[in-house]
Structures are given as structure tokens and as C-alpha cells.
Amino acid sequence: MTGRSRTSLLSLCLVFAVTAAGPAWAEDTDAPGLGGPSSVRAELTEGDGLTDPQFRSRFLQTNLPAWFGFKQTLKENANIDFKIDYLSLGQWSNAEVGQGHAAGGIARIYGTWQAFENGGLTAKLEHRTAYTTVAPQFFGFDSGAQSITGTAFNDIQLALTNLFWTQRGPNRAWTVQAGQIDVTDFLDVYGLVSPYTAFQNLAFNTNPTINAPNPGLAIAGGVRLHENIYAIASIADANGNPAEPNFDVFKTGETFKSIEIGYMSSQDRIYFDNIHLTFWQSDGADDGSRRDDWGVSGSAAWFFNIRWMPFLRAGISQGDAALYKATVSAGLGYYTRQTDLFGFGLNWSDPGEAFADDQYTAEVFYRLTVSPNLAITPSVQLIANPALNPGEDSLAIFGLRGRIAL
Questions:
Q1: How far apart are CA 65 and CA 61, in angstroms?
Q2: Are 41 and 197 in contact (CB under 8 A)?
Q3: Does 389 or 289 have the greater pLDDT score?
Q4: How far apart are CA 189 and CA 309, in angstroms?
Q5: Residue 138: Cβ within 10 Å count
Q6: What is the pLDDT of residue 187?
Q7: Other beta carbons within 10 Å of 52
Q8: Which 3 state secondary structure label does DSSP give 268?
Q9: What's the CA gap between 179 and 212, in Å, rounded?
Q10: Strand, coil or helix: what is 253?
């Protein structure tokens, strides 16, 4: 047995050991559970998990009563809850290099089917397209920065990002998920991690020192070790490709592994009041396109008075496969009763030995929530010492994101 095979086998055993332990992760039916703000279950919930959200209007719900009535009937009679949405992002840069603008959109249909009391299916199908020559996800590079400024808005076209089964033990003693999984739904998450509802720059999403794979075949499990202490572990295809889902991981043995240990105020606030450490390792690719890598990240975020969420996050990686070698981010989110969200973040990153200077990023956004089904988010990103264009001292990227949901 090779060293890589032994590592993968041990990691797989670790996942099953974590999910089989007790007392365990008690995922509530209406709570995100093994997932963060960008997971399907979370996005099916109104109001960011806030208590008694006061929306400005019920636009679309009042305009399309038959549609929303059908969805409610399906949920009550067949335990199927689903949503269709469309997101669009435009970005503009003052950089003297590159295209100067980028735009793209994401159409999604996603939902859950609670087949049994302790088991159910989750699915998400997406179509991601670029309207311009450069997709927003790569606009930072095009503008001269070692930075992903439009996370998730790429041009992979049709993609199956979720198709997995969730199983819970008796009395919800443990939770395990297996199938086509996006590990960033639960990997190193906090309340402002979602690129669909909060920050757009990867510096403030999933930690950019983590070489997280694209959605692919995976298994993940969670356990509550104490009333306020939890653990999550996963093993996933390091070569995940949601545009062409496959079982090649059983041939290559190239996997991504993670384990997270964290503290939470309560299970239903796991990504609102959360302090954790995440350890990860990713196998290199046999074709040389990716080297072995591993690292550690930490995150602390706490939700005060159902309004304020300060956060502090950091990470390091030991290889060169991840976007950064080291990073530290800090910032603040402010939620209103109308479920608007103001976010401000600062980031320092070491892009690696190939670059002369460290890079600094700031992002400010305001999500205006018109209704549960419509939100508009302008943003500004400022990047100092853009690593790919050392002739520039800084660059600014202006963005406008919209989301409509049915």
C-alpha cells in the first residue's frame, strides 16, 4: 500500500469514527446543520437565520401566489422544499491592464427531500456563465492582483454541485453526508462566508490558504463532543469537477481531507457564534498540475444583539497549490431588521515566494434586501500592492450583484 493510499484510508476511517461517536451532532430539521450560509438548507431559510426578520415587502410572493402556494403544498405533503434563483454580478476596475470589466450570472435550482425521519436527499443544479471575455471569478487576476474578486461567478456552464444523502442516527446522535458534495458548504465557515449573500472576495469567503477542491464525490460527518464543542471531518475527491461528475477518485486515490474542531454557543447558531480550527491536507495530482499541500486555518466570529458580527480569521499553507501561503482577515458585519447586511473586511496575504510584496485587500458591501426574493448588493474592493502588476500601487474594483429567487 502506498503512502497516499494509507493516508486516504486513515482519513476515511477518521470520518466514520467521528460520525459514529457520541453524544453527537444534533442537526435540527430546520437548521443548516452540516453546512454554512451557502449550503442548500441555509439558502432555503428566510432571513439569514435572524429572529423575526422584518422584510420591506413580499414582492413576488404576493405577485405569484399560485407558484408559492404550490411550493408550500409540496413541502407539506411530499416533504420537498426547493427554490429557483438567478444571480448576476458585474465588476469594473480602474486598472491600467486587463479588460476593465467583467460580468456573469448563475442560474440555480436546489432543494431537499426529507424521505425519512432521519434521512433525506439534497440536490443543486447550476448553470454558470460569463457575459464577458473574463468571468468575474478571474477578474482580479486580469486586473493585476493575485486575488479572486468574484468568487463562484465563473464560466463552467452546467454543473451538478450537490447530490448527496444525509443520514442521522437514532435521536440524531450523528450525521453523515455522502455523494456529490461542495466541501466549502461546511469547511471553515462563518456567518459571512457566502459569495451569494455577503463578501465577494475569496479573502473573506472560504480561507484562501485552503486548497479546497471543486464539488465532487465526498463523504462528511459531524459529531457534538460536548454541548458547545463539535467536530467535522471530510474526505473528498481532490479533482472534483461538477461539470463532469465522475467516480475517478476510486482510480486515482487523490483526495482532500479536513477535520475541524470548534466551539459554538448552541447547535442552531453554529455558524453565527463560532470559534474553530481547521486542519486540511490535499494530495497532489499525478500529472503534476497540483502538488501535495496541507495547512491550518482558524476563525472566530460572534453574533451580538442580533445585529453585529465581528470576525477574525487566519490561515497558513505549506505547499504552493493554494492561492496564498498565509493570510489574516478581520472585519464586521451589521444586520438590520429588514435583513439588509453591511460588511467591511480587511485582509493581509502572503501570495508566495514568487512575489516581491505582500498584498492587502479591503472590501465594503451593502446588501439591500427588497424582499425575501430580491436583493441588490453594491460593493467596492481595494487591493494594495497587486501582486501580478507590481508597477501599480493599488487598484479598485467596483461591483454590483443582484439576486432574484422563486
A1: 6
A2: no
A3: 389
A4: 13
A5: 19
A6: 94
A7: 7
A8: helix
A9: 17
A10: coil
Burial of 157 (0-12, 13-18, 19+ CB in 10 A): exposed
Asked if pLDDT for residue 1 goes beyond 60, the answer is: no
Could you report the per-residue pLDDT of 208-255, keeping only the tens digit for each?
A: 999 999 999 999 999 888 889 999 999 999 999 999 999 999 999 999
Query: Taking Cα atoms as reference points, which of 102, 104, 123 lies closest to residue 112?
Result: 123
Residues 6+ apart with CB under 8 A from 332: 308, 309, 310, 311, 343, 344, 345
For residue 99, the tally of other CB atoms under 10 A from its CB is 14
For the record, the C-alpha cell of 338 comes out as 429588514
Q: Return the pLDDT at 53.
A: 83
pLDDT category at 5 given cuts 50, 70, 90 is: very low
Compute the distance between CA of residue 386 and CA of residue 391 in angstroms, rounded to an integer: 9
Compute the distance between CA of residue 256 and CA of residue 243 in angstroms, rounded to an integer: 19
The label of the residue with cell 453591511 reads: 342
Three-class DSSP category at 101: strand
With b for 16 or more beta-carbon neighbours within 10 A and e for fewer, the 267-287 pattern comes to bbebbbbbbbebebbbbbeee
Average pLDDT in the chain = 89
- Assign residue 347 a region (left: φ > 0; alpha: ψ between -120 and 50; beta: otherwise): beta
Cα–Cα–Cα angle for 383, 389, 394, nearest 5°?
30
CA 280/CA 141 separation, integer angstroms = 26
How does residue 173 score in pLDDT terms, banded at 50, 70 and 90? low
Cell, residue 377: 448588493
First CA to last CA distance, the chain: 51
- Flag whether pLDDT at 25 surpasses 70: no
Q: Which residue in 88, 105, 89, 144 sits closest to 398, CA to CA?
A: 89
- Measured over the CA atoms of residue 185, residue 189, residue 195 and residue 196, the dihedral's sign is positive
* Contact by Cβ (8 Å): 189, 262: no
Averaged pLDDT, 353-378:
94
- Is residue 216 a contact partner of residue 181, using CB atoms and an 8 Å limit? yes
Amino acid (one-letter) located at 156: I
In the predicted model, is pLDDT for residue 116 greater than 50? yes
Query: Closest Cα partner for 213 from 287, 301, 290, 318?
Result: 290
User: Is the CB of residue 151 less than 8 Å from the CB of residue 274?
Assistant: no
Residue 372: asked if its preceding bond is cis (omega within 30°), the reply is no
C-alpha cell at 49: 437565520
> How many CA atoms, within 13 angstroms, populate the side-chain half-sphere of residue 227?
1
